[in-house]
Amino acid sequence: MKKLPFFCIYAIMLISGCEKTITGGDGVIDNCNPDDYDLYDYYTDQYGNAGIVAAKNTDAASWVNYIIVLSLDEHVASWGPEGMAVFPVFENFNASYPDSFFFGLQMNQIIEEKGSENFPAFDWCHKKNRDVKAIHSSSWVLPSEADLNIVFSNDTDMLNQALEKAGGRPLCGDDDGQPLYWTATEDIEDFFYFSDETIEKDYDQANRAIPITASNLFPTSMPSWNKSHEYRVRAIKYIYFRCDIE
């Protein structure tokens, strides 16, 4: 078990690759040693926010490395108001779709600028940050779809055991079935493949955001994506990141 907190920075990754620059890293020290934490280790920051290392890739042969912490606790909240598109989509719809690292950070920063108090799922995550700074590269944030895909692709049974051992809530229980978790990603891609092999070619960025389950499945009913619905919320933070592509 690790007892001391580490505050780390990570580089912006654009859809086309990575840059060696830091975003929003004011006051945040260098990346922690990737050997300091193993998968399913306990983590706590200086404010007492605790979590479990839910994803780790430090393979030297990989072009991108990271350590992601998932909060011990969770919340139930709506995503935010319907009728408001948040992420600025550009001319080429698919080219601008943020299916990559750090979209989550960018989205949380945009939400903060608009007023997190109007976006309950984000607000709950942002209130974990008591450093009196704008959302930055090691803040607790609402994870993007890509972030949660990474977390949920690991052994959720092992993750749940670690969460429970640390006094946290598991991702799902027998009485819960497969609950939905909000992501920071709006419904801004022009088609999705669902778990029942159907294809949906409709999208509605202003009114819908993407929830997924701990089994990494999309709900098959598009109305389930409405931003006003209340689903579970988990916060994440990156405590290590390295990218070799410039």
TrEMBL record:
<protein>
    <submittedName>
        <fullName>Uncharacterized protein</fullName>
    </submittedName>
</protein>
